[in-house]
Design brief:
This protein is an alpha/beta fold. It folds into two domains: 259 residues; 64 residues, no CATH class. Strands 1-2-5-6-7-8-9-10 form an eight-stranded mixed β-sheet. It has a five-stranded antiparallel β-sheet with strand order 11-15-13-14-12. Helix 3 packs parallel to helix 5.
């Protein structure tokens, strides 16, 4: 069992390890950092660093866990990576089918392959055939699909990747669908991601909003800032906007963390860094911020002046805030004075 401090799950299960970067959210991958520390260490579990590896000795772990748990699948990999064979992914799903006492949370950035496989009758047949090897019932059929105890999610760090991944998720067979906006690197308007551009504010019922082929709509949003070395700041308005959209649409919302940066409420932006003169440089959110404080705009622009970035501001400018790097523990996980730990509800949820 992989014990974890991740706020939205109980344990982790890694039938594969290793991955490769596909989008900006991968830039400072914690899993890669951990694994690469041990590359070349003879006999170590991560002797091959973060290279993609199958771990068949881990496949049956959930079958030995009797107490129901939320299980995050592949915290150290991506189950739908191109280097993981279809047959092996079918075995992973077969174990999840048999270990029905647990709720499995599968998160991916490979949305297209996920939809392709999980919509394939051939793949579904492979899952149920493999499940018999792990103690499943021989009379299971495709009518048991999608698996009721498997939640499927995609990562979406900004609008570009939300637009790319969420519609594909909504078109993928799943009992529960969720989105992890972590690290959140820009604002996300969820209505852009739904068929027909329907706004969450017009949501009127569980099956009337972004309903695809009669399947359940989006059920859960996780939001979090980036932590670790080189962490990028998250504007508070980005998190608040997603929270408000979730409340309007009846979608569960979980705020995981601020990350390394918090809003400095003692310092007020009283000017527009874009027009303050030559001493200011305006650029995209830096991958490695070079100041303990930065002026961050809700659009994702920063103004950096390590010598004296705030004092000369003379006139108010909407959208700017001061972010201060204080560390993950100090920044905490409260948003507007409280924690947000909402979970989706279905018959297989672990309370």
């Amino acid at each position: 069992m992989g014990k974890t401090s991740i706020e939205w799950t109980d344990v982790t299960w890694n039938p594969t390890t290793g991955c490769t970067k596909v989008s900006p959210g991968c830039d400072h991958c914690y899993a890669e950092t951990l694994a690469e520390r041990f590359r070349g260490t003879p006999g170590h579990y991560y002797e091959n660093g973060f290279d993609v590896q199958l771990r068949p000795d881990k496949l049956e772990e959930p079958l030995r866990w009797k107490k129901p748990r939320r299980v995050f699948v592949n915290s150290m990999s991506d189950l739908f990576h191109k280097d993981i064979p279809d047959e092996y992914i079918a075995q992973v799903f077969a174990v999840m089918a048999v270990a029905s006492q647990h709720t499995f949370q599968v998160l991916t950035k490979r949305h297209a392959r996920m939809r392709s496989l999980l919509s394939s009758d051939t793949f579904i047949d492979e899952v149920f055939a493999a499940s018999v090897e792990f103690g499943g019932e021989s009379d299971w059929a495709t009518s048991d699909w999608p698996l009721p105890n498997v939640w499927l999610g995609v990562s979406a760090e900004n609008q570009q990747w939300a637009d790319a991944r969420i519609p594909v998720l909504l078109d993928t067979p799943a009992a529960v669908r969720f989105v992890s906006a972590e690290p959140l690197l820009g604002p996300i308007n969820l209505c852009n991601c739904y068929p027909g551009g329907v706004s969450p504010s017009t949501y009127e019922g569980p099956q009337e909003h972004c309903n695809v082929h009669g399947r359940a709509p989006l059920a859960w949003l996780i939001v979090g800032g980036e932590s670790g070395r080189g962490a990028r700041p998250m504007h508070p308005d980005w998190a608040r906007s997603i929270r408000d959209q979730c409340e309007s649409a009846g979608v569960a919302f979980l705020f995981k963390q601020w990350g390394e940066w918090e809003q400095d409420v003692t310092r007020y932006i009283t000017g527009n860094p874009v027009t303050m003169g030559q001493e200011y440089t305006v650029l995209n959110v830096p991958r490695k911020p070079n100041s303990r404080q930065t002026a961050l705009h809700a659009t994702g622009t920063t103004a950096l002046n390590p010598d004296n970035p705030f004092d000369p501001f003379a006139a108010g400018h909407q959208g700017w805030t001061v972010m201060r790097r204080v560390g993950k523990k100090a920044a905490g996980r409260e948003l507007d004075g409280r924690t947000w730990d909402e979970f989706p509800h279905n018959g297989n949820e672990v309370v």
